């Protein structure tokens, strides 16, 4: 049963990552890393396909080996956080805009402290 749940979660992560490839605010690589994690526990064949993928494979392997995020990835993530904060400041009333600001600061700080590739 657990193996099936990991497989379903991996498929959902692939779907979200695919959508993220076309939507600028939805990340792609973190969903592919999550999919690889799920497939490692449910489908070694699909995990191997992700690890051998031309674009996502190197990111997944770096994350597994060292928890590393490339400088380009960090910059893109922080840019998306900044854009989200600006949208929150424009469209959210006080004090609700503080939630995305706090999330961006916490998430951005964590991302920036990860080792680089």
From TrEMBL:
Protein's name in the database: YbaN family protein
Naturally occurring in which organism (per UniProt): Sphingobium cyanobacteriorum
Keywords (A to Z) from UniProt: Membrane, Transmembrane, Transmembrane helix
Superkingdom per UniProt: Bacteria
Transmembrane parts of this sequence: 6-39, 97-113
InterPro entries from the UniProt entry: DUF454 (IPR007401)
A matching Pfam family: DUF454
């Amino acid at each position: 049963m657990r193996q099936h749940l990991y497989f379903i979660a991996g498929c959902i992560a692939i779907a979200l990552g695919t959508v993220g490839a076309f939507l600028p605010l939805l990340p792609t690589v973190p969903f592919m890393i999550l999919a690889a994690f799920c497939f490692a526990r449910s489908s070694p064949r699909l995990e191997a396909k992700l690890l051998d993928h031309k674009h996502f494979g190197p990111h997944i392997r770096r994350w597994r080996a060292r928890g590393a995020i490339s400088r380009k990835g960090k910059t893109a993530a922080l840019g998306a956080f900044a854009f989200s904060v600006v949208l929150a400041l424009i469209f959210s009333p006080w004090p609700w805009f503080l939630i995305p600001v706090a999330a961006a600061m916490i998430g951005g700080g964590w991302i920036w402290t990860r080792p680089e590739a």
